[in-house]
Amino acid sequence: MLFKHIRQRSVGRARVSHAVAVIFLEFFSWGLLTTPMLTVLHETFPQHTFLMNGLIQGVKGLLSFMSAPLIGALSDIWGRKSFLLLTVFFTCAPIPLMRISPWWFFALMSVSGLFSVTFSVIFAYVADITEEHERSTAYGLVSATFAASLVTSPAIGAFLSAQYGDSLVVLLATIIAVADILFVLLVVPESLPDKMRLSSWGFPISWAQADPFASLRKVGKDSTVLLICVTVFLSYLPEAGQYSSFFLYLGQVINFSSEAIAAYIAMVGILSIIAQTLLLSILMKRIGNKSTVLLGLGFQLFQLAWYGFGSEPWMMWAAGTVAAMSSITFPAVSALVSHCTDHDQQGAVQGMITGIRGLCNGLGPALFGFIFFLFNVELKEMSPVPNPVTPSTEEKSVIPGPPFLFGACTVVLALLVAVFIPAQHTPVVKTCGARIMTEPVSGGPENASVPASDEDNEPLLQDSSL
To answer: How is residue 116 annotated by DSSP?
Structure first.
């Protein structure tokens, strides 16, 4: 009854702009905390900061991997709005604790990974209300909104932190997070029509279908989904590790100031918006979905190699422009998966992809933190080191950023796998449970449900063999 009541509270018809607003507010609030996060992280874990940051992000990502398929599958049954509210609430819940209790902040941030899967629900939301030919553009817009939320928020957070202290920044981030929760509750409409929902509460849910390990086993039964998931894993593993530690790396190893880090984020964010809107739309029309994915992986490979060998600030700025171009990969992959999936299975399949990304969010930061630890790269100062002797000795290293070079190697493997992804698909492809809603009514009562054994025998995309 609670979910039904939440679905009924909305304004107007579901639009892509609703999804864009939810993503923007959520990540804008977290973007404000970029500078305070570095301070709190260093103060809470003065020893082995990179390693502890990796472990915290690792726990959060692994929990996301466990929960993403379940949340995605349930959103196919009970609607998107309820689970948008759930994911946004728990993703933003740790924010006020940053100043109240840092230890509780990091603990709750780790546990919040159980529900920090907003992107999977958002992509399913967008798939519900868009046609196939416009879906890749809509996904690019949502991904660009994520970049747009980070264009100004770190700079604003750094300025307010320097002028008025971290407490004001945390308060502002909390207010924006609450506004996002209220926006989902009061304004965002339900995107999944009643006729497309399997049932409100009476439908027998297949919990095996929501099991992340069962989802991984089913991936191996379909060649196309297997290739896509392996590509996502190999490419997002270094990206997740990079996101978790790169700002610390810029300040400690490259000696960026807080203002320079904020400006860097803004530059990459602006270029990412251009790449994920104008460039992505042009590429999808001119060279197709698969070639766009390959091009994005090529940019990512170049970017990571540059980060790995770069030792001067100008190298990081130049590599940042390439990083922005590589941001086209994920919306292109999401569009490819969405085109191969029926409407009533969008949440489950997008949840599976988000689950793979969640697994990377767990392994990537932990792996990068461990590699930094092995190479004795630690966060010692929160500002550029005044003594030029220490940084000069560190910069003489042949490979200043070993984890980034390791990430470049995994992207090479992702490129090799992506080459074998089929370029063409049948426009409408049924997933293992899609016949529940798509079979003709005249088929009789036996078509109203799917036998449990079908889940183990049928591939996710029935006609996607190479």
So the answer is: -
Tokens for 267?
């530059």
**Angle (deg, nearest 10), helices 258-274 and 34-44:** 130
Q: What is the rounded distance in angstroms from the CA atom of residue 21 to the CA atom of residue 161?
A: 25
Nearest one of 463, 462, 427 to 133, comparing CA atoms: 427
Spatial CB neighbours of 383, under 8 Å, sequence gap ≥ 6: 251, 257, 258
Structure token digits, residue 203 = 């439908």
List of residues 6+ apart from 213 with CB closer than 8 A: none
The amino acid at residue 58 is G
> Buried (b) or exposed (e) across 56-80, using 16+ Cβ within 10 A?
bbbbbbbbbbbbbbbbbbbbbbbbb
Nearest to 173 by CA among 84, 241, 99: 99
Length of the chain: 466
- Ramachandran angles phi, psi of 215, nearest 5°: -65, -40
CA–CA distance, 432 with 430 (Å, rounded to integer): 7
pTM of the model: 0.66
Least confident of 114-118, 210-214, 390-394: 390-394
In angstroms, the Cα distances linking 238 to 228, 233, 364, 440 are: 16, 9, 6, 45
Q: Are 127 and 342 in contact (CB under 8 A)?
A: no
Amino acid (1-letter code) at residue 419? V
SS3 460: coil
Q: What is the pLDDT of residues 274-331, one digit of tens each?
A: 888 888 889 888 888 889 999 999 999 999 998 888 778 888 898 888 988 998 988 8
Which residue has 């796998």 as its token pair? 417
**How many CB atoms within 10 Å of residue 48?**
15
Instruction: Indicate the helix (H) or strand (E) that contains 234.
Output: helix 223-252
